[in-house]
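FYI - complex with S-adenosylmethionine, inputs then prediction.
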Amino acid sequence: MLIKAVEYAEKGRALDFGAGGLRDTRYLLSKGFEVTALDAHIVKKIENVNHEICSFEEFNYPIREYTLINGQFAFPFIAKDKFDDVWERLIQSLRVDGILSGNFFGLNNAWAQHTNANILFHKQDQIETLLQRFTILSLVEKEYERPTAMDETKHWHVFEIIAKKELDF
Ligand SMILES: C[S@@+](CC[C@H](N)C(=O)[O-])C[C@H]1O[C@@H](n2cnc3c(N)ncnc32)[C@H](O)[C@@H]1O
């Protein structure tokens, strides 16, 4: 999905939101983006990347800065009680014609059974509402069994999105 998103995006500054092990950060670097890797727990740093070791909630999102925001397996981890505020500040940090890519978890995701988990699960219409000021280029629902980072196989229900910010907000 990131490969496709990169094809839509103009080269410029990219935000790897929840960059984790920096796999996508490296890919974006290789494609000529100036990358900011945002994560509360970056375990290593790499050259030519602006590492922001900060929570999603506390990050100072620059206005209309990025041509691409990539949030792979990261949007669901925004704190529930701060989600609306973080989401608004996040999408305002995209430039006009910028591309947003990433995924949300659906209600059939196995983690949705743990009601006390601080993870967000969305229905498709809720995702469409979050993207209502965007042009949706791709919204794909997937369900599959796959190991987690902890190596336990679990049921995944995800919505993969690529959207373009054509309006100025
Ligand atoms: C499931 S991992 C995804 C990592 C990477 N994007 C990938 O696809 O491999 C989620 C990442 O989000 C980070 N994260 C979760 N909640 C966060 C928060 N509230 N603020 C900042 N980072 C957070 C975690 O540290 C983790 O690296």
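The CA atoms of residues 24 and 30 lie 10 Å apart. Residues 18-21, 23-24, 39-41, 55-57, 72-74, 77, 79 surround S-adenosylmethionine (CB under 6 Å).
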